[in-house]
Amino acid sequence: MSVAVLAAALVGCGSSNAPSETAAPEASSGAAPGLPAAPAPAPTTSSAPAVDGTVVDINIAGGKVTPTNGQAQGTVGKPIVLKVDSDVSDSLHVHSVPEHTFQVEPRPDQQFEFTVDVPGQVDIELHDLTRTVATIQVRP
């Protein structure tokens, strides 16, 4: 961006016409929105490479679980990520080969990752709230 500002300054110095003065403020106003816009794509980029598989967003609040009996698709050997926001402690159990159990705490932004070695139906359950959160169809 400093190159664009330098170029705008050189254009302003090389010509004293009114359009050059108009061009310089446009470059400045273009640079200002560019600065806030640059950080916005960065979180999207950092989120995308983190998961090369299936993501299930789970919200537990006031005794209600979202999703309940959700459906998703997965692939053997690819990560499956459970992103959990919860207001209570519970235990997530994944019925797969191999099986997995994750302790959920009463806090936001928890993330649990696992892989499945055998294709088929994988149920994800909350034990204390006795709910099936989702069923993932894992293909080879």
> In which order are the strands of the major sheet placed?
3-9-8-5-6
Tell me, what is the CATH class of the largest domain? Mainly Beta
Helical element count?
A: 3
Instruction: Tell me roughly what share of residues is in helical segments.
Output: 25-40%
Distance between the terminal alpha carbons, to the nearest Å? 47 Å
Major sheet: size, sense and barrel closure?
5 strands, mixed
Structural class: alpha+beta
Q: H/E series, N to C?
A: HHHEEEEEEEEE
**CATH fold naming of the largest domain:** Immunoglobulin-like
Topology of this protein?
Blueprint (H helix, E strand, L loop, with lengths): L1 H13 L3 H20 L3 H10 L3 E8 L2 E3 L3 E6 L4 E7 L3 E6 L4 E5 L5 E5 L5 E7 L4 E9 L1
Parallel strand pairs: 1-4, 3-9
Antiparallel strand pairs: 1-2, 4-7, 5-6, 5-8, 8-9
Helix pairs in contact: 1-2
Task: Describe the structure in your own words.
- The protein is globular, with a radius of gyration of 25 Å.
- It contains 3 helices and 9 strands.
- It folds into 2 domains: 44 residues; 89 residues, Cupredoxins -  blue copper proteins (Immunoglobulin-like).
- Helix 1 packs antiparallel against helix 2.
- A hairpin with a 4-residue loop joins strand 8 and strand 9.
- It has 140 residues and is of the alpha+beta class.
- The strands form 2 sheets. The protein has a 5-stranded mixed sheet, with no helix packed on it.
